[in-house]
Amino acid sequence: MKIDTWLPFGRRRFIAAVFAAAALVTGLNGCGDNDGLRPGAFYASWTGSLSDATQSLPGATGPAPQAFSNQTVRHVLRLSLGGEAIRIKVSNLFGREPITFSSVHVARSTGASGIDVGTDRPVTFAGQASTTVPAGAEVMSDAIPLAVAPLSNIAVSMYFAHPTTVATVHALGRQTAYVGAGDQSSAASIPAAGTSQLQSYYGIAVVEALSRDRARVVVTFGDSITDGFNSTVDAAKRYPNQLDDRLKAAGFARTGVVNAGISGNRWLNDVAGPNGNGRFERDVLAVAGVTHTIILLGINDIGFASIVPAQTVSADQITTSMAAAITKAKAKRVKVYVATLLPFKGAGYYSTVGEEKRQAVNAFIRSNRDIDGVIDFDKVMQSSADPLAMNPAYDSGDHLHPNDAGYGAMAAAIDLQKLE
Q1: What is the DSSP letter of 121?
Q2: Please, are residues 256 and 218 in contact by the beta-carbon 8 Å criterion?
Q3: What are the pLDDT digits (tens) for 196-210?
């Protein structure tokens, strides 16, 4: 049966919110001398962990993926690290057939869909202006001679000349993507009258920045709370963004923060996104220049037991998954910080059994001696009147996701010195 036929209305509305984004729809590498750029290393400056847009929970009908035809989609991306040049990775990781990026351009963003046309650069792939990416594959561009500053926005414009279904997405963008008719990949702006505005990232996985100076890269790994659900659109108020702001303001220009959150993600089951156990190596350990990771994942493993009982998991299964990720990261000499799970009393999938599991998981995190440190978001975010619930000042209204101030409090709780 369909999942929405047996969930109560309030629960359906809550789950619809959790999956609202889904409904929208490697190591260091040197730069070769033939690029005409100074030798150096590429570091991740922006990432968007990818999902299969057609996936759904058991019993539910999968959504139709976004399709483009003779259209340009312009993504606006906030970079973390600056550099002398950049390169981008386009992805068809979850596609069932090859897709062709007919033209790709990059420029500095001037706000909304606007670009600084003087900085517009065509993107090439092995010297070619277009690239066809096989199903299940990703392609890194050539180096693009565009200098970028930390915390600056760029626009990546992709033209799809022929009907193209893009199943590989980062659903929860919290950033407007602009879609216009025809090839507008180098246009100064995409006119509003001919624009449909989306809030997902399509077929783009990574932006890397080239620098001669060594850098640190912090990968924040998690679910919708890392992804920034209910933060202000186009304002970069997710907790990783606000952590990045603090780092740069404190003078840590060469420490970057990239986001590997997927809204609805879980350790042990797919949907939303590939499960955390399966994606940790790709989305964290394979990130160019990664030196640190902050892990915040597990609340959906707990809560979804009341939505899909067949996928009920124990606290031990969650902590075993955490331990495996920690072991993998330490083997790569990546520093690991694990965050306690936030209070969620009053959320649509809260239960007393789920709360017992959350307490058990948090106890495991606080007592873990294999990690480099604990970030106690539970203590930071809990209400003084009821520690099982989120502080109302930080609550976006669903009792699960913080608001902008709450994400700021999370960012403020992280000791910047630990990211050196």
Answers
A1: E
A2: yes
A3: 889 999 999 999 999
Measured distance CA(384)–CA(267) in Å, rounded: 30
| Widest Cα–Cα separation across the chain | 63
Strands 290-296, 216-222: pairing kind: parallel
| Rounded Cα–Cα distance for residues 145 and 25 (Å) | 31
Segment holding 265, helix H or strand E: none
Residue range 271-296, pLDDT digits in tens: 889 999 999 999 999 999 999 999 99
| pLDDT of 215 strictly over 60 | yes
The pair of three-digit structure tokens given for residue 16, joined into one six-digit string: 């619809």
Q: What is the spatial distance between Cα 382 and Cα 385, in angstroms, rounded to a whole number?
A: 9
From CA 131, how far away is CA 120, in angstroms rounded? 19
Yes or no: say if 218 and 43 are a contact pair by the CB < 8 Å rule.
Answer: no
Question: HSE of 80 in the Cβ direction (CA atoms, 13 Å)?
Answer: 31
pLDDT at residue 44 greater than cutoff 90: yes
- Residue pair 49/260 in contact (Cβ under 8 Å)? The answer is yes
Using CA atoms, how far apart are residues 293 and 300, in angstroms rounded to an integer?
20
Residue type for position 242? Q
Closest residue by Cα to residue 318 from 284, 285, 363:
363
Alpha helices (H) in 96-238, listed in sequence order: 224-227
Rounded-to-integer distance, Cα 420 and Cα 241, Å = 17
For 138, other C-beta atoms within 10 Å of its C-beta total 18
Q: What is the pLDDT of residues 343-400, one digit of tens each?
A: 999 999 999 999 999 999 999 999 999 999 999 999 999 999 999 999 999 999 999 9
How is 348-383 classified by DSSP, letter by letter? TT--HHHHHHHHHHHHHHHH-SSSSEEE-HHHHHB-
**Calpha distance 282→292 (Å, rounded):** 15
The whole-angstrom separation of Cα 342 and Cα 359 is: 10
Rounded-to-integer distance, Cα 412 and Cα 241, Å:
11
- Tokens of residue 36, six digits: 């005409």
